[in-house]
Amino acid sequence: QKGGYEHFMLKEIYEQPKALQNTITPRVKNGLPNFSSDNVPDELLKNAKAIHITACGTAMHAGLVGKSVMERLARVPVNVDIASEFRYRDPLVNEGDLVIIISQSGETADTLAALRLAKNKGAKTLAIVNVVGSSIAREADCVVYTHAGVEIAVASTKAYMVQLSVLHLLAVRLGLLKGMIDEAEGKRLVSLLGAVGETLEQMLSDTSLVQAAAQHIVQAPDIFFIGRGRDYYLSMEGALKLKEISYIHCEAYAAGELKHGTLSLITDGVPVIALAVEPKLFEKTISNIKEVKARGAYVVAVLSKGVMLDDQTADTSIHLPECDEFTQPFLTAAILQLLAYYTAKGKGLDIDKPRNLAKSVTVE
Ligand code: M6R
């Protein structure tokens, strides 16, 4: 059943190129995103007075990356909320708003309750769900199914990856509908998305650098992840994945926030996984990396291809393969999944079934 892989998590990481292809291909027509076969009317996106995204855990982290790409391409504000917060704070959701619900299982109790609340408030709901016929899929006004296949490992990997792909396609569609990007740009972005699976597949053929980095952090009691912008949102997912399966305390911080408190925790040898991928924020993040390095941190830098840092800045670097800025999140995410996996493996833990956790959280 594990297809020769030691754990389902690793198998599922390697299934991601195929899952991306299966999810993206049916939503591309004439080189542009098209959700007509999902029965998502353009008006739903175009006329939304406000856009909200709500979900739990990894699905919420996908929503944060979705926010950044939607805001960038369509210039519309997108609010992202943890479902268990959203439902109890009388959210400012009104008739005519669009609420996007993200869930692998389609059964997460808080996410389902958030969906019901949004509907009661008169919003339109669009669910991005993996499990066909699940409660969230049945109750939402429209559903975009991700085609990750069955995900068995408690730590979500391929479901997150395909959630990202749907959110990127929606962002391009929204950008076109709002007139913020033209058709040529839409086609360029969609063709980049269409190629990301192949790039990911090549990257997965040699994971030796990630495995080596995992060996350096396996004994650490605490690990920090830092990044800015989209890299910060990816850091949050990297920290969740690592803590979930390795039982190491991990925290993600916006790199620019370090000085406001967290820097006091950085002492000799504390590992910092630093994401400095997003081009326009690179210089700023590098200066934060130097701050932690000067306090003795062991820095693992995640960088774009060809970017070299001296050993005064980073102790080890992991490079993304050649790719466009638009598709960087997919590759960064896979690096962080592998880092979590090999760290937990180094500790000999039950990777597919971490203690105290369930695959589907159907109770509050
Ligand atoms: O099935 P869902 O996507 O609604 O699940 C949400 C979270 O419970 C889930 O993503 C959880 O955070 C994962 N175990 C993280 O790897």
Automatic annotation (TrEMBL):
Annotated catalysed reactions: D-fructose 6-phosphate + L-glutamine = D-glucosamine 6-phosphate + L-glutamate
Enzyme Commission no: 2.6.1.16
Domain of life: Bacteria
Coiled-coil intervals, chain numbering: none
Keywords: Aminotransferase, Cytoplasm, Glutamine amidotransferase, Repeat, Transferase
Domain SIS: from-to ranges: 41-180, 213-354
Record-annotated active site: 359
A cellular component term, taken from the record's GO annotations: cytosol
GO molecular function term, any single one: carbohydrate derivative binding
Subcellular localization(s) per the UniProt record: Cytoplasm
GO terms under biological process: carbohydrate metabolic process; fructose 6-phosphate metabolic process; protein N-linked glycosylation; UDP-N-acetylglucosamine metabolic process
Role this protein plays: Catalyzes the first step in hexosamine metabolism, converting fructose-6P into glucosamine-6P using glutamine as a nitrogen source.
Quaternary context: Homodimer.
Protein name: Glutamine--fructose-6-phosphate aminotransferase [isomerizing]
Organism: Acetanaerobacterium elongatum
Residues of the full protein shown: 245 to 608 of 608
